[in-house]
Design the sequence.
């Protein structure tokens, strides 16, 4: 799963860079690539820890949170692509605090 995420991040970076050079896109879209690489890094960390020790509860928790974050990021990105609303991370965290 981590390898496919890395390939997708590389392809996304290439298409964003090409669009930005042609004046069709924005370099700020590289946040997508940074987020995907961060998710891939945590997946890799948790995977290596689980291979080393199958009973490592911290690695299992990390992988659980990574899967949830990956799903939430994917849903937010889909909403963004459908122009339904802006789901940037800063907006989500601004509304998540106590009121």
Sequence:
């Amino acid at each position: 799963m981590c390898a496919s995420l890395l390939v997708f991040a590389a392809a996304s970076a290439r298409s964003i860079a090409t669009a930005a050079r042609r004046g069709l896109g924005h370099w700020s879209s590289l946040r997508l690539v940074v987020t995907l690489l961060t998710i891939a890094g945590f997946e890799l960390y948790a995977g290596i820890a689980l291979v080393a020790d199958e009973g490592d509860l911290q690695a299992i928790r990390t992988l659980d949170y990574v899967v949830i974050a990956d799903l939430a990021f994917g849903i937010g990105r889909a909403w963004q692509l459908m122009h339904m609303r802006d789901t940037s991370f800063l907006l989500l965290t601004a509304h998540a605090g106590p009121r």
Remarks:
- Residues 2-96 form one domain.
- The chain has one domain: 2-96.
- The chain has a mean pLDDT of 76.
